[in-house]
C-alpha cells in the first residue's frame, strides 16, 4: 500500500489489485443479490467508475455510494411474482473538487449507466470519517492553533488532539463553506485519556479547502484556563494493576446443536419470523420485510416493511458559546454505518454468533469492509409463561428467547449500541445502550459546573445533554394499509356513587383516531399511560372484534428541553414529538433532512425537506400506506460514576402485538417443565428436567 | 400421615415424628442464626407451643408465625459490637376458635416465653392457603350453589371449582364475619383450563365458621348466562401435538469454575456487594444490610438497610357488581411468601443456581418448607463499557454481570415473578414479570366486552385492570441519616435570545428538597423527566460537590385509575402516589395496613395504620432515618394474545448510584477485549479473545 493512501481505522479498503486476494473472494457475494442487499465490494467501485466517467472532466469526491432501494411498488410487484427483478442501482452524493458543488447521482448497475444527476444547493453533506480526519491534521500545524496552545503552556503539538464534529450552527459562514469544528484535547502519552485534558479553545475549519477558518479561545474573566493535567485512565496499561481477576467466574454460553436461526444471504429466519437485514452508511442496520408465521392461520403475516434508526440528536444544555454548537446528529451528520465498530466475539457479543460485514465506500469511490459490523445471535429471555394450579401444584412453564441484531458505533467520544430485538410473543424492541466517554470541558478556577453540568473530575465539566433517537417504522400490519389510533387510559366518565360507577372503580381505554399527519404529531401523556395502536382497519380480530394491531409502547421519550425558537428546536424538529405519522413516499426517510450538517431547520428547503414539511402537507393517514417516526431517549445529567468511562445505560422502545393473533402466538414452544404434583404425595415426583444445584460455593 | 391431615400443594409440612428424618436434618440450620434469618423448622413449632400453652385453654389457629425482626437500634448495636446478640423472637397472629378473636403475639424463643399478647378489633387477617381452601370445599355441597349450577345445566359438582379471593368490599357484613369470596369456574376434565369456563355467580363465605353466606347470581336482562364450554387449553396433554420441538436449539449456560457469589447461611456476597437474604410469609424475599465495597475508598459503604415488596393491588376496572369486588392485594390479603412457588432448575431458572428454601407456618403451628423458594444466580448482562479511539481502532470493552435473587408466586390465576437485580455499576433494579392466567368472566349473548374488558375468546371477557406494586426501601446511603430531593429537568429560565440563553439550548436540573412526609407524597412528571434523589447530606462527593446519592428512576408508575372517593382509592391509598417518604419507625412496614382484608381505608384505625396515617403525622424527613415507598406497575387492557396463558410481561423500577462513587465503580472488571488496531496494519492483530463464529447455519 502506498504510504499516502487513505486508511480508516476499522475498515478494510479494497483497491485495484486487492480483488484477486483470497479475502476479497470470500467477501464477494455469490449468486444474485436480494434487491435490498447492501452494495457489494464489486458494485461500489463499479458505481464510482460509472459516475466518474459521466462527470468527467470534473473530479469528484464520493460522500457516499450506497444502495438505491427500489421503489416500493416495483419491489412489491417483484416479490409477488408480477414483475421482473428490479435493476441494481447505486445512489451517490458527490462533491465536485474545486467548486464544491454537491450532486445526487443515481447509477444503474444492471444497465451500466447514470440515470439521474441532480445538483443541490445550500446543503452540506454528511461528514465522513475521512472528512473528520482533516481538522486534527491541519490544526496541529496552524499558527493560530499553535499560539493558542502556547498560551496555556503547551508546545508539543503531537500531544494535541482534535475530535472533529459537525459545526452545529455558526453564523459567521454559510454554505459557501463546508464546515466542521474541532474540540481540542491534550494527551500526556499515546494512549492517555484525552477527555481528562480538554482545552479551552475550539477550531473551525473548511473541510473541502482544508483551511482553518477560526480559532476561538474561550476566555473566562479575561483569563485562559489551564489544561487539567491529572490523568484519568481506563485502559489496562494504566489501571491493569487494579483488576480483580478472580472476582467473576466465567459464564459460558453455548449452543452445542447450533443456533435456531438460519441466514441465507442476508435473509434471516428464526422461530417463525422472517426478515431481511440490510446495512448502509447512514442508517446502519436496516430490517426489512418482517413477517411472522401465524400458527393458527398457518400463514406468514406481514408486520413491518422497514425498520431503522433514521436520526438522533444529542443536544447539550450549556448555553454559553461555543457550547451551544454541541448538538450532534449522529445519523445525519456523520452516518451510523460509517461509524460502526468491527465486533469481536466474547467482548461485544457472547454465545453462538453470526456476523455480517458492512460494506462502505471511501471518498475515492473504493469499497471498504467493516468486518463483523452486525452481530446476530439469540439469547435465553427468561420465563415465557408459567402457571401453577394452587390446588395440587400442577405446573407448566416455558422459556422465552430473544433474537438480537445489533451494531455498536463510535461517535468520537460516545459509543452507542443498537440492539434490535424480537421475542417469541411477537414483540419487537429497540434497545439502545450508551457508553464510552462523556463530552468534557475544562473549568476555570472561578467557575462552577452547576447548573449546566457536573464536575466529574477536578476541573472537568461534563455538560448536561439529551440523547434523542428517531426510529422509523414503515408498518405493514397484516397488509399495507394501516391507520394509527392514540390510546389513553381514562377513569370512567361517571362519578363515584352514580349508577354507572357506583364503587368508582371503572376505567377504560379511549381510542382516538389520528386522521391526518398534523393530528398524529403527538406526545406521551403519563397520566393516561398513552400508547399508540398501529392498526389494519381491514382486518378485524374475529374474537375480540378489534382491528389487528401493533401497539407502540414508548414512555422513554423526554421532551426536547431546548426551547421553542431555539437553534436545536428548529434543526431537531423531529424531536419535538414522540410520534409523527405520514403517508409513505419513496425516498422520504430522514426526518431532519437529507442534509443535516449546517441545516437551519427552515421549512420547505428545496433540497432538504424534513418531517415538518411532510407533516405540514397534512395528508390523510387513514387506511393507507403510512410511516411512523417514534422518538425516544433520555436526559443525561452526568454523574461522577460516568467518568472516566460510562457504565452502559440502556433505553428502549417497543412494539407489541395487540389482538393481532387470536391467542398467545407462542404456544408452540415446548415447555421446560411440566410437573404434576399431587397433594397425596407431598413431594416432587420425577420432574421432566433434572433438579440439581450446580453452584459450587 | 393421617388421611385427614392438611396438605398444602408445594409445602413439605413437618409434623411430630418428621423431625427424625434425614430430610428434616438437612433443613435444620446449623450454628447460630443470623438475627434476620427466617424462623427455622424447629423454631416455628417451638413458638406455636409457647403460644398455645400461654393461651390455654383457648384453642388457637395460627394465621402466621414469623420472625419478629429485632428493633433497628438493638440490631445495629449488635452489628457494631456494642451489644449482645438480640434474642430470637417470633411474631404470630392468632385467631381464637369460637370467638374469632384476633391477637398479635410476640414469643421470645431464646427465653422461652410469651412477651406480648395484644388483642385487636375490627380487623381481618391474611387469608392463608388453608383458609382459601375452605370455599371450594363447602361451596360444592351447598344447596344454593348446587341450585345455581343447575340453573345453567351443571349437575356434576365435581367439575365446579372455586378460586378463593379476599372479599374486596361487601357492605352486607362487617368484621363479625371473616369473609372470602369464591369465583366460580367449570372444568370438563381434571386438567381442563377452568378460566375458559367462568360461571355467572359468585359465592361469599365465612372462613372461620365455614358457612356459605350468599350465592350471588348475576342476571343479565333477567337471564342466566350459559357457561362457555369450548376448551382453551395450554397443558401438553391438550396441545402437545402442536409443539414445534425442533424450532429452538438448546442454549446451555454453565459456569465451569463455579459461581462468583458466596453464600454463608443467608448472607450473600458478590462482586463487592454484601447482603442478607430473608424471607417471610407476607413479603416473600427481604434483602437487608446491602452494602458495596468502594474500590477507591477501600471500605464497605452501606446502601440499603432493607428492601422488600410490601404491598400490591390489582384493581379491576369493570364497575358492575360484583366485579367491583375484584381488587386483590396479593401481599397483604394473601401473603407473597405463602404463595411462593417451589422452583425447578432449567424451567424457572437457568444456569448455575443456588436455591434457598422458604419456611412457612401452618394453621396448626407446624413448620412447612417450600423447597427452592428463592433462586439466586448471576447472568451475563451485556456490555459494561466500551470505547474505541476512532483514529486507530484502539478499543477496550468489559462485560457486565447481574446478580438476581428471585421468587415466583401464584395468586390463583396470576403468576408474578419478582427479580431483585444488582449490576456491577452499583444499580439495583426490581423487575416484576406478570404471567399466568387472566381473570375471566362469562358474557351473555346480549353483552359486549367493551369498554371495560376485552373478549379474549368467544363469550369470555377479561376485564381491564392495573397491577400496582409498592417497593419499600429503607435507604442507608453511606449512613443512616438521609434526605430526599425531587429532581426535575427544566429548560433554562431565560428566553431564547437573552444573554443567558441566546441560542435557547440551556437546561438544568432543579432539585427540590422534600422536607416533610406530606411534601414527599409525590408523583411522576413526564414533562420534567422526574426522578428522586435519596441523599446523604452529611457526605459530599468531593469531586462533584454534590451529596452522595442514590437516584430513584421510576417512570412506570401509572396513576390509580379508580376515582378519588372510590373504594379502591381508599383501601389502596398507597397507590395514589409514586413515592411516599416517612421517618423510620420499627414495625411500620405495610402501607395498606397490617390487616388488609376487609379494610375500609379509614384513617387512624387503632390497629390498622396505613401510609396515609404515617404521612399525615407530617414529620420531618430531612437528614434522618427515612423509609421510601415506591409505587410502580402497569395498566393492563387485555388482548387476545394474553389468552389462554399470558406471555410474561416485565415492568421495573431502579435505583442508581449518582455521585455516590468518585468514579465508575466497576473499573476493577477485567476487560473482555483490548485490541490495538493500528492503521498501518489495516487488519486485526491477535486479539486477546478468540475470534470464531461458532454458529452452525
TrEMBL record, chains A, B:
Keywords: Copper, Manganese, Metal-binding, Oxidoreductase, TPQ. It is an enzyme of class 1 (oxidoreductase). InterPro entries: Cu_Am_ox_TPQ-bd (IPR049948), Cu_amine_oxidase (IPR000269), Cu_amine_oxidase_C (IPR015798), Cu_amine_oxidase_C_sf (IPR036460), Cu_amine_oxidase_N-reg (IPR016182), Cu_amine_oxidase_N2 (IPR015800), Cu_amine_oxidase_N3 (IPR015802). One of its GO terms (molecular function) is primary methylamine oxidase activity. The keyword Lipid biosynthesis does not apply. Contains 1 topaquinone per subunit. GO terms for biological process: amine metabolic process. SUPFAM superfamilies: Amine oxidase catalytic domain, Amine oxidase N-terminal region. Residues 34-118 form the Copper amine oxidase N2-terminal domain. Signal peptide: none annotated. It holds the Pfam family Cu_amine_oxidN2. It comes from the Eukaryota. Residues 125-218 form the Copper amine oxidase N3-terminal domain. PROSITE patterns: COPPER_AMINE_OXID_1. The active site is at 330 (proton acceptor), 414 (schiff-base intermediate with substrate). Residues 252-667 form the Copper amine oxidase catalytic domain. The modification 2',4',5'-topaquinone is found at residue 414. Its cofactor is Cu cation; Mn(2+); Zn(2+). It catalyses: a primary methyl amine + O2 + H2O = an aldehyde + H2O2 + NH4(+). PANTHER family: COPPER AMINE OXIDASE, COPPER AMINE OXIDASE 1-RELATED. This is Amine oxidase. It comes from Aspergillus sclerotialis. The lineage of its organism: Eukaryota, Fungi, Dikarya, Ascomycota, Pezizomycotina.
Amino acid at each position: 500500500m502506498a504510504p499516502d493512501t487513505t486508511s480508516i481505522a476499522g475498515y478494510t479498503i479494497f483497491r485495484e489489485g486487492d480483488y484477486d486476494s483470497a479475502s476479497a473472494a470470500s467477501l464477494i457475494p455469490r449468486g444474485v443479490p436480494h434487491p435490498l442487499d447492501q452494495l457489494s465490494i464489486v458494485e461500489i467501485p463499479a458505481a464510482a467508475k460509472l459516475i466518474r466517467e459521466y462527470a468527467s472532466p470534473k473530479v469528484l469526491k464520493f460522500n457516499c455510494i450506497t444502495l438505491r432501494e427500489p421503489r416500493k411498488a416495483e419491489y412489491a410487484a417483484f416479490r409477488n411474482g408480477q414483475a421482473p427483478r428490479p435493476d441494481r442501482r447505486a445512489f451517490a452524493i458527490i462533491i465536485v473538487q474545486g467548486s464544491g458543488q454537491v450532486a445526487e447521482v443515481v447509477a444503474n448497475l444492471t444497465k451500466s449507466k447514470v440515470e439521474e444527476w441532480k445538483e443541490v444547493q445550500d446543503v452540506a453533506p454528511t461528514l465522513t470519517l475521512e472528512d473528520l480526519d482533516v481538522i486534527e491534521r491541519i490544526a496541529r500545524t496552524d499558527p493560530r492553533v499553535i499560539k493558542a496552545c502556547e498560551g496555556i503552556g503547551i508546545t508539543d503539538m503531537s500531544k494535541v488532539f482534535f475530535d472533529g464534529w459537525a459545526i452545529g450552527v455558526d453564523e459567521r459562514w454559510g454554505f459557501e463553506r463546508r464546515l466542521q469544528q474541532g474540540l481540542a484535547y491534550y494527551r500526556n502519552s499515546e494512549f492517555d485519556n484525552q477527555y481528562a485534558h480538554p482545552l479551552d479553545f475550539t477550531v473551525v475549519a473548511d473541510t473541502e479547502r482544508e483551511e482553518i477558518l477560526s480559532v476561538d479561545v474561550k476566555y473566562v474573566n479575561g483569563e485562559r484556563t489551564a489544561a487539567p493535567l491529572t490523568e484519568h485512565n481506563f485502559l489496562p496499561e494504566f489501571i491493569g494493576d487494579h483488576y480483580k481477576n478472580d472476582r467473576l467466574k466465567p459464564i459460558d454460553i453455548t449452543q452445542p446443536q447450533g443456533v435456531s436461526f438460519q441466514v441465507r444471504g442476508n435473509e434471516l429466519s428464526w422461530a417463525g419470523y422472517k426478515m431481511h437485514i440490510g446495512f448502509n452508511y447512514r442508517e446502519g442496520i436496516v430490517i426489512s420485510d418482517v413477517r411472522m408465521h401465524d400458527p393458527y392461520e398457518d400463514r406468514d403475516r406481514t408486520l413491518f416493511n422497514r425498520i431503522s434508526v433514521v436520526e438522533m440528536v444529542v443536544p447539550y444544555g450549556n448555553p454559553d458559546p461555543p457550547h451551544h454548537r454541541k448538538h450532534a446528529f449522529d445519523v445525519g451528520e456523520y452516518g451510523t454505518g460509517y461509524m460502526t465498530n468491527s465486533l469481536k466475539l466474547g467482548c461485544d457479543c457472547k454465545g453462538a454468533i453470526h456476523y455480517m460485514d458492512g460494506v462502505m465506500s471511501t471518498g475515492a469511490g473504493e469499497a471498504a469492509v467493516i468486518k463483523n459490523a452486525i452481530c446476530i445471535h439469540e439469547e435465553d429471555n427468561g420465563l415465557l409463561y408459567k402457571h401453577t394450579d394452587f390446588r395440587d401444584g400442577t405446573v407448566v412453564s416455558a422459556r422465552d428467547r430473544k433474537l438480537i441484531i445489533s451494531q455498536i458505533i463510535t461517535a468520537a467520544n460516545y459509543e452507542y449500541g443498537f440492539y434490535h430485538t424480537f421475542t417469541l410473543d411477537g414483540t419487537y424492541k429497540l434497545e439502545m445502550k450508551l457508553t464510552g466517554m462523556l463530552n468534557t470541558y475544562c473549568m476555570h478556577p472561578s467557575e462552577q459546573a452547576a447548573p449546566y453540568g457536573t464536575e466529574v473530575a477536578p476541573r472537568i465539566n461534563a455538560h448536561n445533554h439529551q440523547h434523542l433517537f428517531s426510529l422509523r417504522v414503515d408498518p405493514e400490519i397484516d397488509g399495507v394499509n394501516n391507520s394509527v389510533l392514540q390510546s389513553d387510559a381514562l377513569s370512567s366518565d361517571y362519578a363515584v356513587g352514580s349508577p354507572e360507577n357506583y364503587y368508582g372503580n371503572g376505567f377504560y381505554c379511549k381510542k382516538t383516531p389520528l386522521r391526518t399527519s398534523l393530528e398524529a404529531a403527538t406526545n406521551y401523556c403519563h397520566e393516561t399511560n398513552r400508547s399508540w395502536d398501529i392498526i389494519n382497519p381491514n382486518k378485524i380480530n374475529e374474537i375480540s372484534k378489534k382491528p389487528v394491531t401493533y401497539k407502540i409502547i414508548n414512555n422513554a421519550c423526554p421532551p426536547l428541553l431546548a426551547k421553542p425558537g431555539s437553534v436545536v428546536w428548529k434543526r431537531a424538529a423531529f424531536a419535538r414529538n414522540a410520534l409523527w405519522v405520514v403517508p409513505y413516499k419513496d425516498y422520504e426517510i430522514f426526518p431532519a433532512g437529507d442534509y443535516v450538517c449546517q441545516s437551519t431547520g427552515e421549512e420547505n428547503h428545496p433540497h432538504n425537506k424534513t418531517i415538518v414539511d411532510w407533516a405540514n402537507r397534512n395528508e390523510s393517514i387513514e387506511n393507507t400506506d403510512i410511516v411512523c417516526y417514534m422518538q425516544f431517549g433520555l436526559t443525561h445529567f452526568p454523574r461522577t460514576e460516568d467518568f472516566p468511562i460510562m457504565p452502559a445505560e440502556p433505553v428502549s422502545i417497543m412494539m407489541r402485538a395487540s389482538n393481532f393473533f387470536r391467542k398467545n402466538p407462542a404456544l408452540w414452544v415446548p415447555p421446560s417443565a411440566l410437573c404434576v404434583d399431587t397433594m397425596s404425595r407431598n413431594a416432587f415426583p420425577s420432574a421432566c428436567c433434572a433438579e440439581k444445584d450446580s453452584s459450587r460455593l
